[in-house]
Amino acid sequence: MKWNPVKLAPAVLVRGSTKSPAFLHLFLAAGLILATAHAGSSQTLYVANRTANRIETYNPTTGDLINNSFVTGLDTPGGVTVDPGNNILYVANSGANNVKAYNASTGVAISGFSLSLSGAIDVRVSGSTLFVSSNSNNTIGTYNAVTGDVIAASFIAGFNASEGITLNGGDIFVVDSGNSLVGRYNATSGATVSASFISTFASPAFITSSGSVLYVTDSISNTIGSYNATTGAEINANFINLSQAFGVTYDSNVLYATGGGSIRAYNATTGGALGGFTPVVTGNNYGGLAVIPEPGTVGFVAIGAW
Asked: What's the whole-model pTM score?
């Protein structure tokens, strides 16, 4: 299926400290308490609005709108991802054939970042490397996450419309929508683990992972299916029924998904609608999603790591 435009931070180490072990233990305990108090207490859900050409933000617990114009001036944005350690939001700006980077707190464009790529569909970040799918070039490319400079434009190639991607356990899983399958590759070398890791779809689009489970949207079957991330075995191909299921992301046993002009949230264990979350139903064509702790709380989480 070709792209259809209309359709915690690193550990903070205290080196050379003259403080007593008891003090350090107390300090770390305080940090852990702060981390617990702040992490998850306030989060942000970022959603690409492909109709209005912008990134919107929502409360991931309630579905309440935070800012419907967090980032504007885009052209058919697709996948989004966030690097919480560096507080950067990356957007596959599909219609403009580029990837954009923004401050995840303010929505201001990151100066010095530039990445042009025909048919950019989805994006993920790991350390200093961006992985970007292009369904024009049928590749997964790697790029410098700070500058956007090319590392390997054809890190993985040979797809028939590469679309959604997710990183999990040292591997990168790629939705090859043209061949209606998901492939599995080594995220360090690009070597093929299994080009047809899962091949039971009608029209797969985006993918996310809980670690042990892969979740894949299928826009023709109107489903989100669940699959074993180690073996590729089907768990439940009809885990969630969602009209024109497209974008999907996982956080803290919750699946956030877009489809049928709506943004919805589900329990990732049962597939039931998430209690307390009011679906956003506007009729707009939504794309990818990402959810992270409030950017301002990331530093507190880092204090607790040793």
From this structure: 0.83
